[in-house]
Each structure stands twice: as C-alpha cells, then as structure tokens.
Design brief:
4-stranded antiparallel β-sheet, 2 domains, Formiminotransferase-cyclodeaminase, Chain B, domain 1, alpha+beta, about 300 residues, homodimer, 8 helices
Chain lengths: ~300, ~300
C-alpha cells in the first residue's frame, strides 16, 4: 500500500447535475485517484466530493476540479443555505495511510499557491495548515461569506495567505487546509436514561476535561429505546478509539450500566482498527506491513 | 480491494539460482499477481515461493511456474532432505480476502486438471481439496516419496485424482490443494516456569480438548527469560485470535500469572485483526468496506 490521502472538496453547486458532473469528471480523469462519493445538496446548493489517492495525484485532481468550478459557477448568482466564500468553497486534505498530517499541510500549501497563481483565486489556509491562528476554524475564515468578503478582503487582517487581496470576479475565494480523519463513533448503553449518556459524554469530551480530540453528546436512540454516547473522534492518532471505548465502559459501570456495543458510522482508516487490535491483543513489535494486504 | 488468494508452491530445487530464477520469473510475468517471497533451502534442495493475486491470475502463475519446473528439474537426479514427489512438489491455495475456502478448493481442482491435461503430470488433491479422506494430510500423500511412488502409483489406492496412474518421467507428480491461512502466534507470560506455558498450551490445543484449529506448545524463551505459549492458528476464521488470547489470559490467571504480550510472526490476513477489533470494541453492524483502504 502506498501513501494515501483523502480530499473532500466542497463546491458551491448542488442543483445543476451537468455542472456537478463536469467538476467530478475532472477528478475521475486523474490516474492514481479514486472517487469515493459525491453528495449534492439542493437546499445548500452545494456538493461534497470525496476522493482518495496518492498525494500528488490528489493535489492535481483538486486543482483541475477547482479550475472547472471556477469556469462553471458564478458566485454573483449563487444562493444557498450553507455558508460559502467561493465556487470551490473549501478543500481539506486528510492523511489516510503512510502520510503524516504535516505532509498534508505541505500539500495544502502547494495547492493553494497553484490555485492562486494559475487561477487568480485568493486562498486562505485553515485547520492544521493555518499560518494565522485566527484562521484555524473554518467559520472564522468564512465570516461575511462571499458577499461580505468582497469588501473585507481589502483589510490587512483578511488578506489571503496566497494571491492578491481581491476576490476572483466570479469564483470568489477558496479555503485550503489539512486535518485529521474524523471518525463518527457511537457507543450504545443498556439504559433508557439519557442523562447517564450525557454524563459519560461530559467525562470524555475535551470541553469538559476529557480527551483532547473527542467531541461527544448523550442522546436517546428512540428506535432502540437506548441511550447513546455519540462521538466525533477528530484525531484518532491522538485519542484512539479503544481508549475512549474503555473509558466509556468504566464510566458506565459507575452507574451500574453496561456498554451494549459500538458503531463506526461511515468510513475509518485501517490504522484506527489496527491500533485497537494491537492494544487489546497486547501485540509486541507489530508492524503494519505484517498485514498481508498492505503489501499490495 | 478485490478477491485475493495466496499461493505457496514448493519446487524441488534449492541449489541452482538460475533454475529458481527461471521458475520465479514465470510468476513475475503474470499481471494481477504479486510475488511476496522466495525462500530457497540448499540442504532441502527446495524453494518455497509465496505470491498473492486475483484467483484466476494466481492459478495461471502457478501453472506456468509448474510447467517451467517440469522443464528444468529432473527428479531422477534430485536429492534433498525434504520429502517430495515431484519437480513441483505441492501447490496450496489460501484464501486471503473476499474469497472462501471453497473457492480455493475449486481453484485447486481447475489447476490440477490443467496440469494433468497439458503437462501430463499426475495430480493429488490434499487438505480442504482432498476428495479422498486419506489424502487430507500431505505426509500421507507423499508416502514413499518420488522414488517409491513410481511403483506405488499403479495401485488403485494410490491412483492420482487427475491424470494417468503413471509418473511424469522427469517431473514426477504434484500435490495441489487448498487450506486456510496459518497465523504463527505467540503469547508471552510473566513467568520463567515453562510448565505453566505447557499446561496452558494443553488447555487451548485441539489434541488435548482445546480449540479445534489450534496447535500449541509451551516453550522457554531464553533471551527474554520468559515462558511462551507458541501457537499455530490453522484456521483463524474458525478459532479467532482474540478467543485464544482471552483463554490464555484466563488460564494464566489461574496460576497467578499475567500475559505480557503477544506476537504475530510474519504475515496475517487483515480480517484476523479486524475480527479482533470488532470483538473488543463490540462493533455493531460493522462491514469490511467501512475500512477506507478496502475500497481501493
């Protein structure tokens, strides 16, 4: 298995299938890249595209898709419920296997410079790629949205990280960055008391003194008549699944409650599950390349 | 990830590098197949070749390698310490991912017929592919070796499964079959008392009333001054790693001993570790395709 990054660009078009197709085709055309998902949302008037590939191939695919979006989307005419600042609104790179977050930051820098230089679209760097702390969070970067940023971009504190301090006349601006893979993870409890789930969620989430890379809530799952701790694992390399699972088990026991099971919603990088197997089997000297399939 | 089988043919040549190369090149030439390992042994005068691939590609590679071995190896002149009946001595197919053992049995049948038909080499089917119970175990099939089988093959009970009851004049006969992936797995104990490791080995191994697919011994690891339960997991789909690990933990506790760690020696199919993660995290509704890398 070679170096692999995920890229999840968001484009400001969720209604015209021919425009979405044209953008997605730019991704499909690049060899070494595999398209995983295309999720258009008409009310947001936005499409989320997910693909994975070798880092340079992923960068190339992102660039061509961004160029096509700039050609076909006019932000002067765009309306939708979701905040956005450009035809290509945001492009995050996410490490999947044998790639570090730092390499994804580097990739975001390269892509940002290329878009600014060749397409004349101002670029903001966010999350792990942010050069300015105030740009770590996407909502802060998008403040005022496309319409507001047209004026605000001239202020020094809103100058882009790459390109001129002037919106592209139709494509606006784009946010590029790097972040860890987010694993959506739920843990189900054998209780109908949602308050216990809420207390456990508080115990594990960063905001309340819990694990740094955990966002969690307690909710009631009516179909199963069961309380659930619903979790966003925002960096499984820093806070692993098994540690959160074990802590939830131990916190639940304090109320005489058991963990019935857990669910991974959607995709996970292989490494997150290998880490769990390695932990529980107390594996010594285990290397990823011992997994037969990773040699292919 | 597509269907994947492993194939580990053994050829009766461990001394002439040019012959080994010529055989291995037949494997390298086939697209859809990846060579993982070549292990020649001069005193055995034998080479073990390991490759993986899509089932039909793996079959094709095995056929061409077998044909080349028949061309270059003369069993009339072969000497070596390891039991063998032919130039290509044995060809097992092993399921790795998204392939059942039954599909590997089918593959062994197809390959056996092809070798018998095109190369005129009599074929015996063994292990999961055995049509005759007495041929399940390889040593039974190889009884008398090349020299003895030349005569014995004429007896009805030694007739091959495919081909004529007559040895190929230089290539002898070949055994083809299917088996599960063997995982070499060790569990280390915080004791220097090898008798405890031996008792635990007895508790888990089939021969002594333990798990059906477990072969185990207790040994002393002098370098670490530590007793170890050393295990061959001959079918991890029937007896999973985590069940054996938990049983060893519980048997060790009976002597006041702890499990320090475990080791996977060499390769393992991904599924064996996913099964462990799924067990310990109590995953509900988990599907292999949720592992991002398996979509590529």
């Amino acid at each position: 298995m070679s170096k692999l990054v995920e890229c999840v660009p968001n484009f400001s078009e969720g209604r015209r299938p021919e425009v979405i197709d044209a953008i997605v085709n730019e991704v499909r055309k690049v060899s070494g890249v595999k398209l995983l998902d295309v999720k258009p949302d008409a009310s947001h008037n936005r499409v989320v595209v997910t693909f994975v590939g070798e880092p340079q191939a992923a960068k190339q695919a992102a660039f061509h898709a961004c160029a096509k979006a700039a050609e076909l989307i006019d932000m002067e005419k765009h309306q939708g419920e979701h905040p956005r600042i450009g035809a290509t609104d945001v492009i995050p790179f996410i490490p999947v296997s044998e790639v570090s977050l730092e390499e994804c930051v580097q990739l975001a820098n390269e892509l940002g410079q290329e878009i600014a230089g060749k397409l004349n679209i101002p670029i903001y760097l966010y999350e792990a790629a942010a050069k300015i702390p105030a740009r770590k969070n996407l909502p802060d970067v998008r403040k005022g949205q496309y319409e507001g940023l047209k004026m605000a971009i001239a202020k020094p504190e809103r100058h882009p990280d790459f390109g001129q301090a002037k919106m592209h006349p139709t494509a606006g601006a784009t946010v590029v960055g790097a972040r860890q893979f987010l694993i959506a993870y739920n843990i189900n409890l054998d209780t109908r008391d949602v308050n216990i789930a809420k207390k456990i969620a508080s115990a594990i989430r960063e905001a309340k003194g819990g694990y740094r890379y955990v966002r969690a809530m307690g909710v009631m799952i009516e179909e199963r008549n069961m309380a659930q701790v619903t979790i966003n694992m925002v960096d499984y390399t820093g806070t692993p699944l098994h540690r959160v699972f074990e802590t939830v088990k131990s916190e639940a026991a304090r109320y005489g409650i058991n963990v019935v099971g857990s669910e991974i919603v959607g995709l996970t990088p292989l490494q997150a599950l290998l880490d769990a197997a390695e932990f529980y089997l107390r594996l010594e000297g285990f290397e990823r390349k011992q997994v037969l399939e990773t040699n292919l």
